[in-house]
Amino acid sequence: MIKALWLALGCVMLALGVIGAFLPVMPTTIFLILAVGCFSRSSPRLEKWLLDSPTYGPPLRIWRDQKAVSRKGKTYACLGMAVGYALFWWSARPSWPLAVGVGLFFVASAAYVLSRPAPKVSDAGGRPLQR
Q1: What is the pLDDT of residues 59-92, one digit of tens each?
Q2: C-alpha separations of 38 from 20, 33, 53, 74, 127 in Å
Q3: Burial 97-113 (b: 16+ CB within 10 A, else e)
């Protein structure tokens, strides 16, 4: 029963990640990280499929193994948050307290992403080298 819940949650996270790949203001990688975590508890086959993906596998493995984010990933994440906040400000016309609250959330999120270490050297497949 618990395994089925993890599998269902993993599928939801995967679906959100796929949607995020096509919508510029919705994140992709965080949902795929969550999907890998859910699949690790429910479906080793789906976990392996995501980790072996040529596009998303390397950053997912680096996060899982090193809790690291590449410079490119940090740049895209911060730009995405800035664009998301600008769209929120422009489209929702929020009150000052709401605008400040959402802004602080984005600043805290960006600070967390920027505080992650850079990935250690890896092989051509994106797997960390053994030391």
Answers
A1: 999 999 999 999 998 998 899 889 889 999 999 9
A2: 18, 9, 17, 24, 21
A3: eeeeebeeebeeebeeb
**Backbone region of residue 126 per phi and psi (left: phi > 0; alpha: psi in -120 to 50; beta: other values):** left
Handedness of CA 44, 46, 49, 53 (dihedral sign): negative
Copy the structure tokens of residue 88: 């929120």
Cβ-based neighbours of 38, under 8 Å, separated by 6 or more: 6, 7, 9, 10, 13
Alpha-carbon span 16 to 127, nearest angstrom: 25
Verdict on whether the full-model pTM lies above 0.70: yes
Q: Are the C-beta atoms of 126 and 70 separated by less than 8 Å? A: no
Q: Which residues pair with 128 in a beta bridge?
A: 122
Burial call 60-85: b when 16+ CB within 10 Å, e when fewer: bbbbeeeebbeeebbebbbebbeebb
